[in-house]
Structures are given as structure tokens and as C-alpha cells.
Amino acid sequence: MMCMCAIRVGGSAARITHACGLKNSVAMEGYEVGHAYDAWEKIVILCDTSERAVDAAALRGALRSFSNSLGFLGKEDSPQYKSPHMLGSMGRHPKDGCTGDMGFQASLCVDYRALIDPDDEGTRNLRMIPWYNLVASAADLLDQGNNAAVAAARLHSQMQAIAEVALSIYYEGSGKVGCE
User: Fold this and answer.
1) What is the residue range of 28's domain?
2) Mean pLDDT to the nearest integer, 37-51
3) How many angstroms separate the CA atoms of 174 and 167, rounded?
4) Environment class of residue 2 by beta-carbon count within 10 Å: exposed (0-12), middle (13-18) or buried (19+)?
5) 30 within a domain of the structure (yes/no)
6) Contact 106, 93 (CB under 8 A)
7) 74 found inside a domain
8) What is the mean pLDDT of the chain?
9) How far apart are the C-alpha atoms of 58 and 5, rounded to whole Å?
10) pLDDT tens, 60-97?
11) Alpha carbon of 158 to those of 153, 163, 178: distances in Å?
12) Whether residue 163 has pLDDT greater than 90
């Protein structure tokens, strides 16, 4: 599972100032858009295209991978610029933040701090990321649906057992041996 957010400068998209709910987002122009598209096509080719049933475990696994990735690529950054809230690394230009500048590969990152730790208290509430919350909610709903299906199957079995007992009592009371 992958979540990518990007806006293109110009036209109606120019009014979008907070792509993906982030305070700072990447703006691309001209050749950068072409490079991003080329890179995206290469990524898509590598993706598994087989259709698989999505279940709660798969969704939670993807969310766990995302959570484990936050801060991981920045582990080599200098201590004052390390962030457990960042997907990617600020690398050589930490003072500039996550600029998305195509000329500086290391600044290609997404800083989720504004969403998951808005008061800078050292918290990490990933449910504050809108797309993360939607996927987590979908996993919860799948679990609820599975639990309801199991409960319904159990009730169906109990109802069948009760119907068999009732039929047996009826046949016994009427003197009939079985269904005729």
C-alpha cells in the first residue's frame, strides 16, 4: 500500500495549499512533473497487480509498515533534525525541511508532525492522519463484519439444532416416525 500526495502548480490546483492535510506540500513545475511521472510509472511496474482479497490483517500490516517507516530513513540525520514523524530524510539540507526539491534528493520527505504531534509534546497519534484513520477504520469495520458473520453462523447453527429438536418432539407427540 502506498500513499502519495502531490499538487501541480497552476490552474485550479494552485489554490490547494495543504495537500494531504499537511502544512507544507510539494509543488512541481515543468520538467519536474515529467520526472515525477516517469518515476511513478517505474514504481507502478514493480507493483504486484494480482487481485487479492483485502482483509483487516492486510490493512493493519500496511499501516504497521508505514508506522515503522516513520523516522527510519532519517536515522542517519544529525540528532537535532531526526524526527519520528517523518517519512524520508532531510539529509544534507535539514534547515530547509521537507521541501520536495527534486535537486536535493535527501529533502524528499513528508513531515507528519503537524498532524500527529500538533502541540509538540512528543506524541505520535497516527489516527490524526486522515488517510491513515480511514484505512484503520476500514480494518475495524472489516473486523466487525467478520465478527458479525461468525455470530450469525453460530446463531444459524443453533436455530437448526432447535428446529431439529422441535421436529423430533412433534413427530414423537404425533406418533409419526419421520417426515412423510
Assistant:
1) 1-51
2) 69
3) 10
4) exposed
5) yes
6) yes
7) no
8) 72
9) 22
10) 999 998 888 887 655 555 555 556 777 766 555 555 55
11) 9, 9, 21
12) yes
Is the pLDDT confidence value at 167 over 60?
Answer: yes
- Contact present, 26 and 100 (Cβ < 8 Å): yes
Ranges of beta strands (E only) in the chain are: 7-8, 27-28, 86-88, 109-111
3-state DSSP call for residue 138?
helix
Report the domain count for the chain.
1
Q: What whole-number distance in Å separates Cα of residue 77 and Cα of residue 71?
A: 10
CA distance 123 to 179: 67
Contact 54, 146 (CB under 8 A): no
CB 106 within 8 A of CB 90: yes
Could you tell me if residue 159 is inside a domain?
Answer: no
SS3 of 17, please? coil
* 60 belongs to a structural domain: no
Determine the pLDDT at residue 55. 92
C-beta of residue 127 within 8 angstroms of C-beta of residue 133: yes
